[in-house]
Amino acid sequence: MRRRFDPWRLGLWAGLVVLLLSLPLTTVAQSQANAARAANPSELEQVISGVTPTTVELGGDPLFEVKTSLGTLSASDRAKLINQRLKRIAEKIRDPVPAFKVEADQPNLLIVADTQPPIAIATITPKDGEVAQQSQEKLAASYIQKIRTALETYRAERSPQKILKAILYTILASLGLIMAFRLGDRGYALTLNRLHQWIGSPESLRGLRGTRFLSLSPFLELFLRFFDLGRNILNLVLMGFYFFLILSFFPWTEPLSENFWALIRTIFNQIIRAIIAYLPNLILLVLIIFITREILAFTRLFFREIERGNITVSWLYPDWIEMTFRLVSFFVIALAFAIALPFLPGFQSPAFQGVSLLISALVTFGAASTVANIVGGVVAVYTRSFQLSDMVKIGDLVGIVVSKDLLVTRIRTPKNEVITIPNATVVTSNIINYSSLAKDKRDATGLILHTTITLGYDIPWPAVHKALIAAAAATPDILPSPSPFVLQTALNDFNVSYELNAYTDCSENMPAIYSALHQNIQDQCNQAGIEILSPGYLAMRDGNRSTIPADYLPEDYQAPGFRFNATGDSDYLPP
């Protein structure tokens, strides 16, 4: 998108030029008013109040200083009066520069301008000579030389030729600024076109060594915003330099331009001095960064060789390698940052310390749970409670571990639900790992699956054992060795509890294995003529006999019986 030069800019520059050209009229009117007030010293003394500089200047250029008083006039009053008289003479541009002479006015000397009528410019008192450590004559001669030079310079700078030249320079500077804006707009449009073409090309999707690295398309809008911001800042800088450049062309605005360039030089010098003073700390920071980079590279190479098997560390398990590398890298970077922190620019400033304190407080109070989860993730890795693809039970949740991150652990349940568990919860929960022995090559047993049925006492237990073991043998993913076995876990009031135990190395298929096992138990029991139910028994006992011990009862004691009447109601009769 190309921006054309707006007409309002040309109007702004034209108005600025008109304003600069109108400043001399204002200056001349002000000088005439000052001259009118200077003609009446008593009125001038009434106007002057407060403390003013004692420097005599013309057109912003200092000539000399007045350091003593004269009668009722203070040093500042004398300097102001001399400034006004010099300005009155200087404004008469069409007249030649007048001659100056020294006249005696005992005990003082007067510097008088040879005009019509003559104007007394300044008075040199004996005290002025004493302060300057010169004679009155030499001091008056030096004042005349400075005044003559200042008047010539003042009139030369304000001559019509000089003003026309300043206007010409202003026009040229304006044309140069217009050309700079046009070239900037054209370069901006060309850069945008090239950028869009490159973003749409396959080369933008390739990284180092011809591999796909990162697409820049999502970042195009953000990049364009920063690019446009940089162009606007550059335009503002150009406008600022242009403004103060044309101020330097005109004598009545030249002091503003000189102040600006003096400020720029001061800032630039301060920056250079600050950079030179900071060079030792900068060298130390570069050295710290270089050493830290080399240590991290060596650490990365060391752990990569361990992962490849070229270096053997007996206590470092394979699942510890990545986490250990992260921890070592973190501590190396943290140590390097702690060492480099005092050498950062502005470290001792109250602002830097206040921001550091605020960030520390935010981290302390706002990231407590995050830190707990990170610590929990590290503990989960080093305790080796579970690995990826393990069937686990964390609290009341059962599923396969699909990811172990620094903050959370994710498991997929048999219902194909992915549950995210914070690591702080993981380390504080009971963890049952169904896959650890099933995946352990040094252990040949595997995971034991168990299920319980209850059968009546009337069924012979060897038949039950045989049917259950046959059901386990017919179930897929049940290992034939070690062999399944049955435990009679309880002799209940009405039935016997039989627990079938069988080995498997496919813990991730537990729900399907249990379902097939239960189906086979039903089939095998039906084939063996075993009815799967838990019978209940009802027995009637004679409770009429006394519960008093027999040693206390008579020898001829007989327990009472029951008697029934005709209505069928029972009636207890004593013996």
Written account of the structure:
With 575 residues, the chain is α+β, with helices and mostly antiparallel strands. Among the domains are: 39-158, no CATH class; 253-346, no CATH class; 371-433, Roll (SH3 type barrels), CATH 2.30.30; 447-527, Alpha-Beta Plaits (2-Layer Sandwich), CATH 3.30.70. It contains 15 helices and 15 strands. The chain has helices spanning 7-38, 41-47, 75-90, 126-132, 136-157, 160-199, 220-247, 254-308, 321-340, 350-366, 368-383, 423-427, 436-439, 461-473, 510-527; strands at 55-58, 61-65, 100-105, 108-113, 119-124, 391-394, 397-404, 408-412, 418-422, 431-433, 447-455, 485-491, 496-504, 563-564, 570-571. The longest helix is centred in the middle third of the chain and has 55 residues, at 254-308. It starts with 6 loop residues before the first helix and ends with a strand.
Features:
three-stranded antiparallel sheet, SH3 type barrels, alpha+beta, about 575 residues, about 15% strand, rod-shaped
